[in-house]
Specification:
1 helix, 9 strands, nine-stranded antiparallel beta sheet, 179 residues
Length: 179
Protein backbone atom coordinates (compact mmCIF):
# COMPACT_ATOMS: atom_id res chain seq x y z
CA UNK A 1 0.00 0.00 0.00
CA UNK A 2 0.99 3.60 -0.54
CA UNK A 3 1.37 4.83 3.05
CA UNK A 4 2.08 8.42 1.92
CA UNK A 5 -1.56 8.86 0.85
CA UNK A 6 -3.09 7.43 4.04
CA UNK A 7 -4.92 9.99 6.13
CA UNK A 8 -8.15 10.39 8.05
CA UNK A 9 -10.07 13.67 7.97
CA UNK A 10 -12.84 14.68 10.34
CA UNK A 11 -14.76 17.80 9.37
CA UNK A 12 -17.76 19.91 10.28
CA UNK A 13 -19.54 22.63 8.38
CA UNK A 14 -22.11 25.05 9.80
CA UNK A 15 -24.09 27.38 7.54
CA UNK A 16 -26.32 30.29 8.44
CA UNK A 17 -28.72 32.12 6.13
CA UNK A 18 -30.73 35.27 6.82
CA UNK A 19 -33.17 36.43 4.16
CA UNK A 20 -32.95 40.23 3.79
CA UNK A 21 -35.10 40.76 0.69
CA UNK A 22 -37.30 38.59 -1.50
CA UNK A 23 -34.28 37.77 -3.70
CA UNK A 24 -31.24 38.21 -1.43
CA UNK A 25 -29.86 36.57 1.72
CA UNK A 26 -26.85 37.06 3.96
CA UNK A 27 -24.69 33.97 4.45
CA UNK A 28 -22.24 32.83 7.12
CA UNK A 29 -20.22 29.62 6.87
CA UNK A 30 -17.80 27.91 9.25
CA UNK A 31 -15.77 24.90 8.10
CA UNK A 32 -13.41 23.04 10.42
CA UNK A 33 -11.33 19.97 9.66
CA UNK A 34 -8.68 17.90 11.42
CA UNK A 35 -6.46 15.79 9.18
CA UNK A 36 -4.46 12.93 10.70
CA UNK A 37 -1.69 11.57 8.45
CA UNK A 38 -1.02 8.44 10.53
CA UNK A 39 1.32 10.20 13.01
CA UNK A 40 3.06 12.15 10.26
CA UNK A 41 4.15 15.77 10.75
CA UNK A 42 1.56 16.87 8.18
CA UNK A 43 -1.29 16.50 10.73
CA UNK A 44 -3.17 19.78 10.77
CA UNK A 45 -6.26 21.75 11.72
CA UNK A 46 -8.10 23.93 9.22
CA UNK A 47 -10.57 26.61 10.32
CA UNK A 48 -12.40 28.70 7.70
CA UNK A 49 -14.93 31.44 8.44
CA UNK A 50 -16.71 33.09 5.50
CA UNK A 51 -19.47 35.64 5.08
CA UNK A 52 -21.30 36.80 2.01
CA UNK A 53 -24.50 37.07 0.04
CA UNK A 54 -26.75 34.80 -2.00
CA UNK A 55 -29.18 36.10 -4.58
CA UNK A 56 -31.80 35.05 -7.09
CA UNK A 57 -31.36 37.63 -9.85
CA UNK A 58 -34.16 36.10 -11.93
CA UNK A 59 -36.16 32.89 -11.95
CA UNK A 60 -33.29 31.33 -13.95
CA UNK A 61 -30.16 33.01 -12.53
CA UNK A 62 -28.86 32.62 -8.96
CA UNK A 63 -25.52 33.03 -7.26
CA UNK A 64 -23.56 33.51 -4.09
CA UNK A 65 -20.25 35.07 -3.07
CA UNK A 66 -18.34 34.37 0.15
CA UNK A 67 -15.12 35.88 1.44
CA UNK A 68 -13.35 35.42 4.74
CA UNK A 69 -10.41 34.08 6.68
CA UNK A 70 -8.81 30.69 7.07
CA UNK A 71 -6.11 29.25 9.25
CA UNK A 72 -4.25 25.97 8.61
CA UNK A 73 -2.16 25.01 11.64
CA UNK A 74 0.27 22.10 11.44
CA UNK A 75 0.92 20.00 14.52
CA UNK A 76 4.69 20.60 14.49
CA UNK A 77 6.03 24.09 15.15
CA UNK A 78 7.99 25.49 12.23
CA UNK A 79 5.85 23.92 9.54
CA UNK A 80 4.36 26.25 6.96
CA UNK A 81 1.18 27.32 8.76
CA UNK A 82 -1.12 29.57 6.76
CA UNK A 83 -3.39 32.39 7.84
CA UNK A 84 -5.12 34.46 5.22
CA UNK A 85 -7.82 35.03 2.66
CA UNK A 86 -10.33 32.41 1.55
CA UNK A 87 -13.07 33.04 -0.97
CA UNK A 88 -15.57 31.38 -3.28
CA UNK A 89 -18.27 32.52 -5.67
CA UNK A 90 -20.69 30.61 -7.82
CA UNK A 91 -23.40 31.31 -10.36
CA UNK A 92 -26.12 28.91 -11.50
CA UNK A 93 -28.22 29.32 -14.63
CA UNK A 94 -31.34 27.16 -14.87
CA UNK A 95 -31.62 26.54 -18.61
CA UNK A 96 -34.83 24.56 -18.06
CA UNK A 97 -36.50 22.51 -15.33
CA UNK A 98 -34.14 19.66 -16.17
CA UNK A 99 -30.89 21.42 -17.19
CA UNK A 100 -28.57 23.62 -15.05
CA UNK A 101 -25.21 25.27 -15.82
CA UNK A 102 -22.89 26.21 -12.96
CA UNK A 103 -19.71 28.26 -12.67
CA UNK A 104 -17.65 28.39 -9.46
CA UNK A 105 -14.43 30.24 -8.57
CA UNK A 106 -12.40 29.52 -5.43
CA UNK A 107 -9.27 30.50 -3.49
CA UNK A 108 -7.78 28.94 -0.33
CA UNK A 109 -5.41 26.29 1.06
CA UNK A 110 -5.81 22.67 0.06
CA UNK A 111 -5.06 19.28 1.59
CA UNK A 112 -3.24 17.07 -0.87
CA UNK A 113 -2.76 13.33 -0.85
CA UNK A 114 0.50 13.47 -2.82
CA UNK A 115 2.61 15.92 -0.81
CA UNK A 116 5.82 14.02 -1.30
CA UNK A 117 5.44 13.92 -5.07
CA UNK A 118 5.19 17.73 -5.07
CA UNK A 119 7.30 18.86 -2.15
CA UNK A 120 10.38 17.87 -0.26
CA UNK A 121 8.64 18.65 3.02
CA UNK A 122 5.06 19.16 4.10
CA UNK A 123 3.66 22.57 3.22
CA UNK A 124 0.18 23.62 2.34
CA UNK A 125 -0.55 25.11 -1.03
CA UNK A 126 -2.89 27.87 -2.12
CA UNK A 127 -5.26 27.10 -4.94
CA UNK A 128 -6.90 29.61 -7.23
CA UNK A 129 -9.32 27.94 -9.60
CA UNK A 130 -12.62 27.67 -11.39
CA UNK A 131 -15.07 24.86 -12.13
CA UNK A 132 -17.76 24.80 -14.80
CA UNK A 133 -20.43 22.10 -14.80
CA UNK A 134 -23.57 21.09 -16.61
CA UNK A 135 -26.24 19.00 -14.85
CA UNK A 136 -29.14 17.32 -16.59
CA UNK A 137 -31.92 15.54 -14.69
CA UNK A 138 -34.15 13.88 -17.31
CA UNK A 139 -36.15 12.02 -14.64
CA UNK A 140 -36.79 12.49 -10.94
CA UNK A 141 -34.50 9.55 -10.12
CA UNK A 142 -31.63 10.17 -12.59
CA UNK A 143 -29.03 12.94 -12.92
CA UNK A 144 -26.13 13.27 -15.39
CA UNK A 145 -23.35 15.80 -14.97
CA UNK A 146 -20.10 16.82 -16.61
CA UNK A 147 -17.57 19.10 -14.95
CA UNK A 148 -14.32 20.80 -15.94
CA UNK A 149 -11.86 22.35 -13.47
CA UNK A 150 -8.82 24.57 -13.87
CA UNK A 151 -6.60 25.21 -10.85
CA UNK A 152 -3.34 27.01 -10.18
CA UNK A 153 -1.48 25.75 -7.10
CA UNK A 154 1.08 27.99 -5.36
CA UNK A 155 3.23 25.94 -2.97
CA UNK A 156 4.00 27.88 0.22
CA UNK A 157 7.67 28.55 0.98
CA UNK A 158 8.67 27.70 -2.59
CA UNK A 159 8.61 29.27 -6.04
CA UNK A 160 6.77 26.25 -7.47
CA UNK A 161 3.52 26.86 -9.36
CA UNK A 162 1.48 24.06 -10.86
CA UNK A 163 -1.51 24.38 -13.16
CA UNK A 164 -3.90 21.45 -13.40
CA UNK A 165 -6.91 20.71 -15.58
CA UNK A 166 -9.55 18.09 -14.93
CA UNK A 167 -12.67 16.93 -16.74
CA UNK A 168 -15.01 14.36 -15.23
CA UNK A 169 -18.57 13.21 -15.38
CA UNK A 170 -21.05 11.35 -13.25
CA UNK A 171 -24.36 9.60 -13.40
CA UNK A 172 -26.43 9.57 -10.22
CA UNK A 173 -29.36 7.27 -9.62
CA UNK A 174 -31.47 8.92 -6.95
CA UNK A 175 -33.62 6.77 -4.69
CA UNK A 176 -36.31 7.79 -2.29
CA UNK A 177 -35.74 6.94 1.39
CA UNK A 178 -39.22 5.47 1.80
CA UNK A 179 -40.85 2.70 -0.21
Amino acid sequence: TDRVDDFVMHSIQLDGLRKVTKRASLLAEYYGAHTDHEGDHRDNWLHRLLGGVAWDATAKLAGRALVGYESRDYRVDGEEDHDGLAASADVQYRCSRKLRANLRAFYGTQETSDYYDNLEDARSYLTTGATASLEWQPRKDLQWSVRGTWANDDYQGSSDLETTHNVDGSILVLRSGSR
